[in-house]
Amino acid sequence: MISIEKLITHHLSLTMKQLFTTDIPRIRRLPAIHQVRALPLGQVVLLGFLLLLSGLFLRSGPLQTEQQFALGGVGRPLAQDFHPGETTATGQSFRWTDGDSTLHLPPQSLGAHTLRLTVSAPWPEERQNSVPLTITINDQVMLTMEQSAVPRRYAFLVPADRLRWSANVVRLESPTFRPDEVNRNERRLGLAVFTADWRGLERPGWLVPAQILAIGLVIGLLYLLLLAAGIPFWARLPTTLLLLAIMLAMRHSDSRFVYRLHALLMTAALAGGLALLVALLWRRRVEPIVLPVRR
Question: CA 234 to CA 164: how far, in whole Å?
Fold first, then answer.
């Protein structure tokens, strides 16, 4: 038989276990970004004011949608496989082609473009009176005809669907001849190209709003990231202003369309990277803490 003393001891043991045994669940702490309060209205207004100033600055700057140049005054990478620049007796600069020379022209907008070229074939009379000329733009033959020594100005329309975002290649092909020269290496000369006029027909009015949208995303996400990281206001604001000034001082304010387009694409990529960091911070969890909870 079990004695009364053992029963009492067993009962007391069970009671003590119920009193002092705790069920300890694993409770996770909210990530840092969940603890961020809403931005004060003053800071939101300040960021909006900075974007307004940026838009006014970008809109006030010139935007070049055309490119005019004399071949004698440009070199690589714009003009490739040309001979060095020369000047006529009347002071016009030009360059000889080597029979297969190219112009690499950046886009001036995202719409249709026009190209005008002034070309001549001043070959010696005993060689040939006219020279076969072929002009190709982005691998599409635009012109095939006989070119004489009299300069001609050719005009071409390049549709938007034929335009390239990097460089539009204009190829000039012709036969060549070897001139009688003294103190020069043997050269093969094709055509004399004087001037080129490359311009976009569409004014990119969408560009500045797109720049402001991309810049606003970048500085907004950066500000949110710094806020979530616990950076104080006196450090967040100068960091945001510095990044804004760098973006505006670099390619975003360039007068050439292609550089602004590249800056817009790079800023959009930067916004995507910052958004990824914010998303990772949102999903991040710190090590769980243990809280004793009595049931």
Answer: 45
